[in-house]
Write a structure and sequence with these properties.
The complex is a heterodimer of chains A (310) and B (264). Chain A is mainly alpha-helical and 310 residues long. The longest helix of chain A has 27 residues, at 3-29. Chain A has helices at residues 3-29, 37-53, 58-81, 87-106, 119-127, 131-154, 157-167, 169-174, 179-205, 216-231, 236-258, 268-289, 295-309, and strands at residues 110-112, 207-209. Chain A is globular. In chain A, helix 1 packs across helix 10. Chain A has a single domain (3-309), classed as ABC transporter involved in vitamin B12 uptake, BtuC, CATH 1.10.3470. The N and C termini of chain A lie far apart (58 Å). By secondary structure, chain B is α/β, with parallel strands linked by helices. Chain B has 3 domains: 1-79, Rossmann fold (3-Layer(aba) Sandwich); 94-166 and 176-197, no CATH class; 235-264, no CATH class. Chain B has helices spanning 45-53, 75-78, 89-92, 99-107, 121-134, 151-164, 181-196, 209-214, 233-237, 241-252, 259-263, and strands at 2-11, 19-29, 34-38, 60-65, 68-69, 82-85, 169-173, 201-205, 218-223, 226-232. In chain B, the strands form 2 sheets. Chain B has a 6-stranded mixed β-sheet with strand order 6-7-8-3-9-10, sandwiched between helices. In chain B, strands 2-1-4-5 form a 4-stranded antiparallel β-sheet, covered by helices on one side.
Chain lengths: 310, 264
C-alpha cells in the first residue's frame, strides 16, 4: 500500500470516526442499537452539500448539519419513549422517512461539489497548506475536539445520568432521573455527530449521494467492536480513543481487502457483515480455547474473595 | 407523614386475567415509624410499594406524602422524597459504573442534572467517610466498577446510596431475600443502623416472620390486596411467630399455605 493511499485511509477513518463516536454513544453508553444513523449520515451530507452548492459559506453549512441530525435523533427518541416503539423499529422508521427527506433536500439523488469550495479548500486557501494537509488538519482537529468534549460531558452530572440510564434504567428512575429524557438527549447528540460526519465526508469525497447511508450502522458497530477488541481499554477516555482507532483500523482493513484481485467494491458489505460477526462471536470462541482453570488456585482465590466480601 | 386513602390497583383491566391487586387500602404512617409488611405471594405487598413509589398508578384512592398529594406523579418526580431498595442487588446499583459514580448519582437524587462536574473532591471525601461505616473496605475501592463486587457488597452500597440524601420515606422490598443467610444478617444490621436508628420513615417487606417482628415497631399483614392485620408497639411485643400464624388464620379465615412464610 503506498503512502498516499495510507494517508487518505487515515483521513477517511477520522471523518468516519465521528459516526463511530455517535454509534458508541447509543450502542455502548445507552445500550440502544440506533438504526437512524443510516438516514442521519446522508442527511448531514445532503444538507451541507446542497447549501454549499447554493453558495453558502461551507463552515456554516457544515455546522448546520449538527442540529438537523440532532432533530432526527430526537424523533427516534420520541417514537421510542413516548409511543413505546421498540428501539430497532423507531430507528428504522426514522431512517426510512429520512430517505425521502434527503431526496427532497437535494432535489436529485446526487449533488456534486467539484466546482465549489469546501471547508478543506477554504482552509488551504487561507493558510497555504496543500489540500491533503488541510484535510488532515480539519479531520484531526474535529476528532480531538469531539473526543475531549465527549469525555468532559460524560463526566458531568448529566453525562453520568446518561451512562447510568444505559446501565440500569430502573435504578436511575428511582434516583429521580427522567430516563426518557436521557435517551432522547443521547440519541440527539449521537445523530448530531453522525450528521456532522456525513457533512465532512461529502465535502471530502466531493459529492453527496442518496445511497451513501446504506450500512452505516454496521460500519459504526464494526469500528466500535474492532477498537474495543484491539485496544481493550476500560476508562471512558480510553474507550473514546479506542473507537476512533477502530474506525481507522476498519478503513485499513477495507483498503487491504480491496487489493485482493477477485474482490469487487460491491463485496464490501458482505465483508463488513462477516467482520462484525467474527468480532461479535470472538469472545465465545476464545472462551473455548482458554486453558482449563487451575481448580486448586481458583478455590484459594474464591475463598479469599469470600472472606473479603463478608 | 404518609397517608394512603382507599387505594385500589387493578391489573389487566377488562381482560380475562384481570386481577385486583389492592383493594381499599388505608394506611397512615407517623414520621420516623419503621413498619414491616408481611403477606403471602400475590398479597399485594410489592404492588403497594410500587404504587407509593409511582411505578404503578392506582385506579382509585390517594397517596399523600408530607401533605403533598403524589398519587399520579411519575416515579422520577417523587424520587427526591422516596428512596427504594430492591430485592435484586443488581437493580440497586449500576454495574458498569464505579462505586463513587453510583454514590454521586445517589447524592443528586431528585435534583436536576446539570453540566457540573459529576464528582467533586469534597464529595469523594464524603463517600470515603460514609463507606467506612459499612466496614467492607469499599472506601479503598472508590473507582472499582460495581460489577466486581459481591451481591452483599452491592446491597450494602445500595442501602448507603438510599440514605446519602435523607429521604422522607424509604421503601425496602425484600431486600435481604436473595442474599445468603450470613450476608442477609449483615444487611439487616445495616438496615437497623441506617434506617431504624436514624428514624427514617420506612416500609419494609419481608418474607421472614422473625425479621418482621424483630425490626421496627409496627407490623402490617396484607392478604388478597387488603390490610388484614395492623399491630404496633405494645401488642407487638407479645407477638411470636406461632401467634402471628394464628392471627393470620383468624383474620383471613384461611389456612396459611405459603411454605416460604411458614418455614422462616
Amino acid at each position: 500500500m503506498n503512502l498516499m493511499l495510507l494517508w487518505s485511509t487515515l483521513i477517511l477513518g477520522l471523518l468516519y470516526g465521528l459516526l463511530v463516536l455517535g454509534v458508541f454513544l447509543t450502542f455502548r453508553i445507552l445500550n440502544y442499537a440506533d438504526l437512524s444513523v443510516d438516514g442521519s449520515l446522508p442527511l448531514g451530507a445532503a444538507l451541507t452539500a446542497t447549501l454549499i452548492f447554493n453558495g453558502m459559506n461551507p463552515f456554516l453549512a457544515t455546522l448546520l448539519a449538527i442540529p438537523l441530525g440532532a432533530l432526527a435523533g430526537l424523533i427516534t427518541g420520541i417514537l421510542h419513549t413516548r409511543f413505546s416503539i421498540t428501539p430497532l423499529l423507531s430507528g428504522i422508521l426514522t431512517m426510512i422517512g429520512l430517505y425521502s427527506i434527503n431526496l427532497r433536500i437535494m432535489g436529485r439523488p446526487n449533488v456534486p461539489l467539484l466546482r465549489h469550495d469546501t471547508i478543506f479548500d477554504l482552509l488551504s486557501t487561507y493558510t497555504g497548506l496543500t489540500l491533503r494537509l488541510s484535510q488532515t488538519v480539519i479531520a484531526v482537529a474535529v476528532i480531538i475536539l469531539t473526543v475531549i468534549g465527549l469525555y468532559f460531558f460524560l463526566n458531568t452530572e448529566l453525562g453520568q445520568a446518561l451512562r447510568g440510564t444505559g446501565d440500569n434504567e430502573v435504578m436511575l428512575r428511582s434516583l429521580g432521573v427522567n430516563t426518557d429524557r436521557m435517551k432522547i438527549m443521547g440519541l440527539a447528540l449521537s445523530n448530531g455527530l453522525v450528521a456532522l460526519s456525513g457533512a465532512l465526508i461529502a465535502q471530502y469525497q466531493g459529492f453527496a449521494d442518496i445511497n451513501m447511508g446504506i450500512g452505516m450502522i454496521i460500519i459504526g458497530l464494526a469500528s466500535v467492536i474492532i477498537g474495543e477488541v484491539a485496544l481493550g481499554v476500560k476508562s471512558i477516555l480510553g474507550r473514546l480513543c479506542a473507537v476512533v482507532a477502530g474506525s481507522i483500523l476498519y478503513r485499513l482493513a477495507i483498503a487491504l481487502v480491496l487489493r485482493i484481485s477477485f474482490i469487487e467494491y460491491t463485496d464490501l458489505k458482505l465483508f463488513t457483515a462477516l467482520l462484525v460477526t467474527i468480532a461479535l462471536i470472538s469472545p465465545e470462541i476464545s472462551k473455548k480455547f482458554r486453558p482449563a482453570p487451575n481448580l486448586a488456585l481458583l478455590e484459594q482465590k474464591t475463598g479469599a474473595a469470600e472472606r473479603a466480601g463478608n | 407523614m404518609l397517608q394512603i386513602n382507599n387505594l385500589y390497583k387493578v391489573f389487566h383491566i377488562g381482560e380475562i386475567n384481570e386481577k385486583v391487586a389492592l383493594q381499599n387500602v388505608n394506611l397512615l404512617l407517623e414520621p420516623g415509624e419503621f413498619v414491616t409488611i408481611i403477606g403471602g405471594n400475590g398479597a399485594g405487598k410489592s404492588t403497594l410499594l410500587n404504587c407509593i413509589a409511582g411505578v404503578h398508578l392506582p385506579e382509585k384512592g390517594t397517596i399523600t406524602l408530607d401533605g403533598d398529594e403524589i398519587t399520579n406523579f411519575p416515579d422520577y418526580r417523587r424520587a427526591g422524597a422516596i428512596c427504594r431498595i430492591f430485592q435484586d442487588p443488581m437493580i440497586g446499583t449500576a454495574a458498569s459504573l464505579t462505586v463513587e459514580e453510583n454514590l454521586a448519582l445517589a447524592l443528586r437524587r431528585g435534583q436536576r442534572r446539570r453540566l457540573n462536574r459529576a464528582i467533586t473532591r469534597s464529595e469523594r471525601d464524603l463517600f470515603r467517610q460514609k463507606l467506612a461505616v459499612l466496614e467492607l473496605g469499599l472506601e479503598e475501592r472508590l473507582s472499582t466498577p460495581v460489577q466486581l463486587l459481591s451481591g452483599g457488597q452491592r446491597q450494602a452500597l445500595a442501602l448507603l446510596m438510599a440514605t446519602l440524601v435523607r429521604p422522607k420515606l424509604a421503601l425496602l422490598d425484600e431486600h435481604t431475600a436473595s442474599l445468603d443467610p450470613k450476608t442477609a444478617l449483615r444487611v439487616l444490621h445495616l438496615t437497623r443502623t441506617l434506617f431504624e436508628n436514624e428514624r427514617i420513615t420506612t416500609l419494609m417487606i419481608t418474607h421472614n416472620m422473625e425479621q418482621a417482628l424483630d425490626l421496627g415497631r409496627r407490623l402490617i399483614m396484607l392478604h388478597e390486596g387488603s390490610v388484614i392485620l395492623d399491630v404496633n408497639d405494645l401488642e407487638r411485643e407479645e407477638l411470636t411467630v406461632p401467634k402471628l400464624v394464628d392471627l393470620f388464620h383468624a383474620a383471613s379465615g384461611e389456612q396459611l399455605h405459603n411454605d416460604r412464610l411458614l418455614l422462616h
